[in-house]
Design a protein that fits this description.
single chain, alpha+beta, Rieske Iron-sulfur Protein, Naphthalene 1,2-dioxygenase Alpha Subunit, Chain A, domain 1, four-stranded antiparallel sheet, 19 strands, about 20% helix, about 25% strand, globular, binds FE2/S2 (inorganic) cluster, binds fe (ii) ion, Rieske 2Fe-2S domain-containing protein, ARHD_Rieske_2Fe_2S, Cholesterol_7-desaturase, oxidoreductase, metal-binding
């Protein structure tokens, strides 16, 4: 349980708030590269700031204030140029650093005045990695953009799924330290949603939480596993400060503002050994809906079930009303780490998991269950027989577009069951 003040401290992310300042020390994925094959600008709202993300004519990405500093026109209606984005209202042009590089009428009427040197637009660095576009909104110098090992895994079909959720980001991130929900939400509730009453999934007997350089792992022993099982020896990874890595996919919980978040999923499906080598030119990006055509929450897929839980906790969960138990040890560890990190940022120090050394930022390994299955691969026969990753039938989120399904099937050489966990 938190006090009202602590809850506000942990959840508010606007500029100048302690948590907002902490989160601004990290790179955040805010869109997919392939979204810009068909358009040049995209509106984004990140941590209470309205911004426009763009790809200029040289193929470089930038992120700037949504409003032109001249008379506030919408920069997402602007025109991309060789370097930067030009406002469509009176033609002022801004580069990636936010510098005004052209003011057509001012430059003509008073070239000596160099008024453009006095005007800047707010701008943030953007980098592309793993098919995602990452933004850094904190003070310079920016740390390294983490190069997690899975981003360079070979022979995988990758896809990016983005969903907007009407709840605070911390509800999503607390799910990254919550092993018991697998048993109830994903195993047992799925059975009930299928109309079955049992038998329920294996019970958890023991859980543990361990710190590593870039976050924490949660480790567990169920009735059907022992202490030699990778669920206990390796565990799944909470990735600091706002993501999770499960062994073959990342889930980032990016705050839009205090009351909304973006779930940004990066999924890696290893193609069968028989289909190697597989090279994917462009990583598809799709928006995952959270409600069906009747306006009901979608509950058929694992991640949609999680979304229903987080949204159900309230727009901003009232943590003054919680009653935490032994299953919530990881939640406490996470909150205490956030408090330590907020203090570090106040003192001008780097918080947890900031990477400053470029030499150390190459294919950084993360705790990875079934690593061999993902890196070495399996044959199509092994996968069909229900291999470790359930590649044949496990689609995490509802709403995969038909063209992505077809591309995934073609890459895999195996028919995908796209119905989700509940109906699978
Ligand atoms: S409002 Fe943008 S150039 Fe005038
Ligand atoms: Fe979950």
């Amino acid at each position: 349980m938190l006090s009202k003040e602590q809850n506000e401290l942990m959840t508010r992310v606007g500029p100048g708030t302690p948590m907002g300042e902490l989160l601004r020390r990290y790179w955040h994925p805010i869109a997919g590269v392939s979204e810009f094959e068909a358009k040049a600008t995209k509106n984004v709202r990140i941590m209470c700031e309205d911004l426009v993300l763009y790809k200029d004519l040289s193929g470089n990405f930038g992120l700037m204030d949504r409003h032109c500093p001249h008379r506030r026109a919408d920069m997402s209606m602007g025109m991309v140029e060789a370097c930067g984005l030009r406002c469509s209202y009176h033609g002022w042009l801004f580069d990636h650093d936010g510098k005004c590089t052209d003011q057509p009428y001012e430059d003509t009427a008073n070239p000596q005045g160099r008024y453009k040197d006095k005007v800047k637009i707010k701008a943030y660095p953007v980098r592309a990695r793993a098919g995602l576009l990452w933004a850094y909104m904190g003070p310079a110098p920016a740390p390294e953009l983490p190069d997690w090992e899975p981003f360079s895994w070979k022979n995988g079909f990758r896809q990016i799924v983005i969903s907007e959720l009407p709840c605070n980001w911390l509800q999503g991130q607390e799910n990254s330290m919550d092993p018991i929900h697998f048993e109830w939400m994903h195993a047992n509730w799925s059975k009930r949603l299928r109309g079955e009453t049992g038998p329920y999934g294996p019970k958890h007997l023991k859980i543990d939480f361990r710190e590593y350089d870039y976050g924490f792992t949660y480790n567990r022993i169920r009735e059907d596993t022992d202490e030699n099982h990778p669920l206990w020896t390796i565990g799944r990874a909470c990735l600091w400060p706002n993501a999770m890595f499960t062994g073959d996919h990342f889930e980032y919980r990016v705050p839009i503002d205090d009351e909304r978040m973006m779930s940004v999923g990066w999924f890696f499906t290893r193609v069968p050994k028989d289909a190697e080598p597989y090279v994917q030119e462009s990583i598809p990006v799709w928006n995952g809906p959270i409600k069906d055509e009747n306006g009901d929450w979608i509950t058929s897929h694992v991640m949609n079930q999680d979304f229903v839980a987080w949204i159900g906790q309230g727009t901003v969960s009232d943590r003054t009303e919680e009653n935490l138990g032994l299953s919530d040890k990881g939640i406490g560890m996470m909150r205490r780490q956030f408090l330590r990190d907020i203090e570090k940022v106040r003192n001008g120090e780097d918080p947890k998991a900031i990477i400053r050394d470029p030499a150390a930022n190459h294919a950084i390994p993360l705790p990875t269950i079934h690593r061999d299955a993902v890196t070495e691969g399996m044959t199509a026969e092994e996968i069909k027989a229900g291999g470790a990753l359930h590649l044949k039938r496990f689609i995490f989120q509802y709403g995969q577009p038909e063209h992505v399904r077809q591309a995934q099937e073609a890459a895999m050489g195996i028919a995908q069951d796209n119905k989700g966990y509940v109906d699978a």
